[in-house]
């Protein structure tokens, strides 16, 4: 609509029509809430007779009047006109049942509908799409599997005895279990899970009257289901071999309601991969024994506090099928299971106490784990005898590095009071990543088994394998989006990027730039992007054994290089042709190996290469601060400022505050100025490095195969450029060493 901004104005101004204003949409009511009087409503009621007890019936009505004293609207439904057919609703409930129309400012698509109907339609559409997938997935014939494979049908292929196990044959329903060739083994694992429920007293079986009373008070009985997974172990040659079937009872937690079956806060932390790599880097010292453990039935050993949760056991629970339990302990699938488990696991870890008596004074000292402040999943223990334990966990998977096996066994005995721990031996596999330890104090990690799996999944094993993850100079322009994406392309592309992303996050730093660039187009992929993503997987397959190696050499300890952080950062100015934003990256090392890295498009448009490099410096400064605190928490404080290499002299001058306040960088936001403060506080020191020697160049642009290979070798240390980091690092003095030895002799 057009309005005069003031009387006698030469031009009218376009303005949105406000349907709540009496002047624009007259209603004849002085009360603003009176505008709703006379509006039609439509509400759905459940039919009470037994024959149609699950049906809803729509009843039309009208807003009769507004009860000002109660702040409620009186609704009269068009039935028999009795008082029983009147209802009072508040404004929020009224908005859901009002019949919408263009006269009230609603869209043409909503004409004649209510908000409740629109919401129900969206829910039913989502449920229908999910049901279609389930029905399609469940279509597994009992016989003639070879004919099914030959026909190319996209069914859930099952493993055949004597053949290599497939990765997509895990049943997702009782129907699939019955059709599975390994049905007996699967049901045996399910029986073991049920027995674990009984042994650990996870819940109490309740009567029908107790359930009816609970439901009458507004409670809801949640459904449960079995989740079946194949478990594998790694052979000496790095390949995977099927170990056993694993069943897990899980609750369908999406039906939980806040304040009823679940609490309002459900967040639970997980350990960062940078923390995992840093812990491995410091534990390559031969004094440590690094083992992995699994907490059997982790959530089942976690108490369910402050609320009542009822579940119904699934059809494939054998003789217990259909029974209703009142849970006493947490179960997989509940929204708060992770939060409850993390909190109670931390309580047990921090509750481990060792008492030592000094031989000279007789004084008793108590020692316990300390939680690292910057990562709530990392803990450190040290007593007066110098015995150390470093622990991190990713949910129920534990990594424990210890210098004393007796102390370690005492801690495990303490944990076993609550959970049964499975000792998996020396750390060789954690979160799908393989770790190979040598007897000379080094450890190498790689994702070979995971990469082989995704290569088979996307059928790229028979294609030509490239020498770089992405073509040099590869970029996406607006012309690439002229053809709309299909749902199949979107689904495939997101699966590709998700698979690549895990490899890039864990240890494959060499595909970080490709991952960063390709992940920007998840909403509108095209054939060119899909081909580029498949090229990354083919590159990963060719270089599947590439990994990160951490080691501590004898000369590292004498020079002070051992357990010392240093890094490099770089930025490519205005690399994105669509937004003209710069691409930045950094990499940080400790003990000859990478502990943290990142490749990202900067959030702002910078005006010069110096500015983009300075913003990149702020990113690496944040990560350095985090790693320094994490290293301190693990017992390896950084004695000197962390060295960061940068190939732009102007950015270095700005970081060192050696530039004019009226220069070209005066407009840089304050939030990036903390780099100068970090330099001043001797937390980082920035030094110049030539561009062709910069470790971080690999993270900022697509390179030719030759340049890419050289960049990977530089990061892995083939150029021996690590020694540049050794300079002003102080080593422990003889007096400090003598003082430490004297303290140990007291215990």
Topology at a glance:
Layout: E1 2-3, E2 13-14, E3 40-46, E4 56-67, E5 72-77, E6 86-89, H1 91-97, H2 115-137, H3 145-151, H4 174-179, H5 183-199, E7 203-205, H6 208-216, E8 221-234, E9 240-251, H7 273-282, E10 289-296, E11 310-312, E12 324-327, H8 337-350, E13 353-357, E14 364-368, E15 370-371, E16 378-382, E17 388-394, E18 397-402, H9 405-415, E19 420-426, E20 429-430, E21 433-438, E22 442-446, H10 448-457, H11 487-506, H12 512-518, H13 527-542, E23 547-551, H14 554-559, E24 566-572, E25 583-590, E26 593-601, H15 609-633, E27 642-646, H16 649-655, H17 674-680, E28 684-688, H18 705-716, H19 734-744
Helix pairs in contact: 10-13, 11-13, 15-16
Gross morphology is globular
Look at the structure and give the mean pLDDT: 81
- Secondary-structure class: alpha+beta
Percent in helix? 25-40%
Radius of gyration: 32 Å
| Total E-strand runs | 28
Sum this structure up briefly.
With 747 residues, the protein is an alpha+beta fold. It has a six-stranded antiparallel sheet, sandwiched between helices. Helix 10 (448-457) packs antiparallel against helix 13 and helix 15 crosses helix 16 (649-655).
Explain the overall architecture.
The structure is a single chain. By secondary structure, this protein is of the alpha+beta class. About 30% of the residues lie in helices and about 20% in strands. The strands form 7 sheets. The chain has a 6-stranded antiparallel β-sheet, sandwiched between helices. It has a 5-stranded mixed β-sheet with strand order 7-12-11-8-9. It has a 5-stranded mixed β-sheet with strand order 26-25-24-27-28. A hairpin with a 3-residue loop joins strand 21 (about 435-440) and strand 22. Helix 10 (about 450-455) runs antiparallel to helix 13. The chain starts with a strand and ends with a helix. The relative contact order is 0.07. The model is unreliable at about 135-165 and about 725-745 (pLDDT under 50).
């Amino acid at each position: 609509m057009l309005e005069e901004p003031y009387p006698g104005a030469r031009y009218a101004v376009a303005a949105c029509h406000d349907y709540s204003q009496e002047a624009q949409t007259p209603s004849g009511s002085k009360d603003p809430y009176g505008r709703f009087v006379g509006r039609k409503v439509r509400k759905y009621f459940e039919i009470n007779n037994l024959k149609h007890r699950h049906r809803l019936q729509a009843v039309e009505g009208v807003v009769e009047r507004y009860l000002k004293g109660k702040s409620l609207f009186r609704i009269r439904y068009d039935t028999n006109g009795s008082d029983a057919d009147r209802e009072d609703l508040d404004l929020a409930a009224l908005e859901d049942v009002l019949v919408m129309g263009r006269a009230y400012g609603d869209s043409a698509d909503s004409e004649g509908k209510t908000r409740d109907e629109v919401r129900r339609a969206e829910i039913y559409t989502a449920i229908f799409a999910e049901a279609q997938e389930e029905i399609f997935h469940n279509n597994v014939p009992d016989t003639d599997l070879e004919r099914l494979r030959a026909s190319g049908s996209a069914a859930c292929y099952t493993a055949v005895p004597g053949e290599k196990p497939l990765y997509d044959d895990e049943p997702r329903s009782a129907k699939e279990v019955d059709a599975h060739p390994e049905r007996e083994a699967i049901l045996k694992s399910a029986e073991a899970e049920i027995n674990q429920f009984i042994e650990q007293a996870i819940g109490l079986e309740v009567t029908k009257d107790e359930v009816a009373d609970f439901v009458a008070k507004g409670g809801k009985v949640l459904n449960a289901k079995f989740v079946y997974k194949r478990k594998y172990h790694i052979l000496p040659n790095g390949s995977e071999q099927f170990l056993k079937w694993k069943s897990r009872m899980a609750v369908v937690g999406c039906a939980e309601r806040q304040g009823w079956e679940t609490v309002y806060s459900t967040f639970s932390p997980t350990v960062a991969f940078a923390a995992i790599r840093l812990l491995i880097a410091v534990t390559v010292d031969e004094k440590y024994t690094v083992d992995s453990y699994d907490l059997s039935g982790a959530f089942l050993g976690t108490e369910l506090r402050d609320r009542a949760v009822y579940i119904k056991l699934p059809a494939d629970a054998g003789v217990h099928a259909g029974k209703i339990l009142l849970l006493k302990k947490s179960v997989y699938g509940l929204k708060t299971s992770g939060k409850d488990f993390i909190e109670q696991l931390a309580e047990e870890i921090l509750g481990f106490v060792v008492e030592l008596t000094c031989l000279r004074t007789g004084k008793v000292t108590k020692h316990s784990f300390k939680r690292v402040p910057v990562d709530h999943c990392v803990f450190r223990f040290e007593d007066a005898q110098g015995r150390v334990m470093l622990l991190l966990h990713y949910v129920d998977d534990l990594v424990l590095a210890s210098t004393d096996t007796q102390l370690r066994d005492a801690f495990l005995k303490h944990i076993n009071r609550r959970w049964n721990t499975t000792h998996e031996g020396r750390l060789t596999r954690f979160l799908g990543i393989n770790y190979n330890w040598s007897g000379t104090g080094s450890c190498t990690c790689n994702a070979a088994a995971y990469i082989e799996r995704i290569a088979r999944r996307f059928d790229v094993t028979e294609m030509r394998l490239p020498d770089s993850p992405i073509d040099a100079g590869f970029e996406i322009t607006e012309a690439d989006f002229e053809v709309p994406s299909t749902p199949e392309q979107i689904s495939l592309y997101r699966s590709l990027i998700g698979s690549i992303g895990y490899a890039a996050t864990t240890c494959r730093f060499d595909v970080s730039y490709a991952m960063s660039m390709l992940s920007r187009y998840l909403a509108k992929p095209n054939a060119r992007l899909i081909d580029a993503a498949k090229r990354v997987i083919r590159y990963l397959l060719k270089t599947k054994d590439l990994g990160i190696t951490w080691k501590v050499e004898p000369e590292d300890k004498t020079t002070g290089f051992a357990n010392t952080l240093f890094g490099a950062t770089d930025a490519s100015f205005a690399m994105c042709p669509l937004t003209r934003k710069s691409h930045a990256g950094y990499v940080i090392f400790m003990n000859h190996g990478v502990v943290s890295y990142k490749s990202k498009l900067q959030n702002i448009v910078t005006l010069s290469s110096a500015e983009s490099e300075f913003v990149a410096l702020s990113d690496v400064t944040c990560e350095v601060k985090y790693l320094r605190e994490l290293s301190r928490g693990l017992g390896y404080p950084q004695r000197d400022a962390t060295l960061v290499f940068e190939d732009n002299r102007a950015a270095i001058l700005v970081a060192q505050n050696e530039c004019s306040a009226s220069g070209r960088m005066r407009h840089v936001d304050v939030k990036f100025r903390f780099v100068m403060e970090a330099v001043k506080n001797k937390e980082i020191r920035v030094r110049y490095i030539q561009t062709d020697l910069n470790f971080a160049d690999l993270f900022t642009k697509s390179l030719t195969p030759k340049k890419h290979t050289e960049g990977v070798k530089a990061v892995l240390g083939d150029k021996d450029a690590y020694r540049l980091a050794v300079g002003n690092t102080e080593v422990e003095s003889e007096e400090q060493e003598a003082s430490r030895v004297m303290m140990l002799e007291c215990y």
